[in-house]
Amino acid sequence: MQTREFFVSAPGKVILHGEHSVVHGKVALAVSLNLRTYLRLQSTSSGEVCINLPNIDTFLSWEITALQPLLAGCKEQDDLKELDADLLKRLREFTGISDDSIDTRSMAVLAFLYMYLTVFAESLASITVSVWSELPTGAGLGSSAAYNVCLSAALLSARGTISSPLTPQQESARWSKEEMELINRWAFMGEKIIHGNPSGVDNAVGTWGGFLRYHAGNITPLSWVPILRILLTNTKVPRSTKVLVSGVKDKINKFPSIMNPVLESVSAVSCTCEQTLTEMAAHRPSAEHYDILEELIDINQHHLNVMGVGHSSLDTLCRVTLARGLHSKLTGAGGGGCGITLLRPVSVRMASCRLHDCLA
């Protein structure tokens, strides 16, 4: 393979309503952030495979001859619906990463090795992968999904499975719809490795960008939406999406008659939010529209607390912003991480009034 470089990037995401509801196929709304993760892949002739993750202080390399035996008996990844459990088990034994590990570095390495081996199964390539990101890890902004989207896009391009549309004369380019769908499916495999049972929202937003409606695995881009001003607050409380999602699932299994109506209500919140955004795009946004969005934010935050994914730091954010006439909710899996606050056009200056000091 000739020495070539691929540069790809993917945005983070904010969940406006209902990420946990998609566990049961309900509606969720998500929008991409300008914060991004970047990946550079360089083909070499050194006979090594290297990954460099400066944000989490990781540089690892392996001889291709050491990785080759891991492919014995691997299944072809044609449908990209289920992980190859045998390969994943061998990779855990090879790396020493336990089944219950939630360490960011370890899971990023495991996802990389799995995707590298399955994409290049016929002939392992000698490559160096460098990833750097503007997104904090474990904060509910989809940093792992942005990483997996970049990784799948770069590896599939290097393998020749998808095209390399960027030319030296261009600053950016976009793949075809079919290629984007393939990138998204591979990224979802990486998300499964890291999170266990992810919804698929994060990798969809990381792949497609923009504003998305997600329902039972179906993604609908929403082009006619108003511009919303959102204040993003990082509580700096780390948490594990895998643990939180598992906790929600356990609560649903334990109290189905109680939790299923909650999930239905969260889905209704998302649908009502979508209707309101559509009206705001078709007509001039009014105070009444913002009243509805703020009520939906409050209702959704209460739902998420009932589901067990709240945190005292997020309660503080909601209380402090509400005292200033603003409404907030968690984004992502909850349990800490980031919260979002809706800013009315006339409230932007007021919202920035020493919010950091209030939360300290």
Automatic annotation (TrEMBL):
One of its GO terms (cellular component) is cytosol. Residues 290-343 form the GHMP kinase C-terminal domain. Coiled coil: none annotated. It is an enzyme of class 2 (transferase). SUPFAM superfamilies: GHMP Kinase, C-terminal domain (SSF55060), Ribosomal protein S5 domain 2-like (SSF54211). GO terms for molecular function: ATP binding; metal ion binding; mevalonate kinase activity. Residues 125-205 form the GHMP kinase N-terminal domain. This is Mevalonate kinase. Transmembrane segments: none annotated. Its EC number is 2.7.1.36. GO terms for biological process: cholesterol biosynthetic process; isopentenyl diphosphate biosynthetic process, mevalonate pathway. It comes from Sinocyclocheilus rhinocerous. Catalyzes the phosphorylation of mevalonate to mevalonate 5-phosphate, a key step in isoprenoid and cholesterol biosynthesis. Pathway: Isoprenoid biosynthesis; isopentenyl diphosphate biosynthesis via mevalonate pathway; isopentenyl diphosphate from (R)-mevalonate: step 1/3.
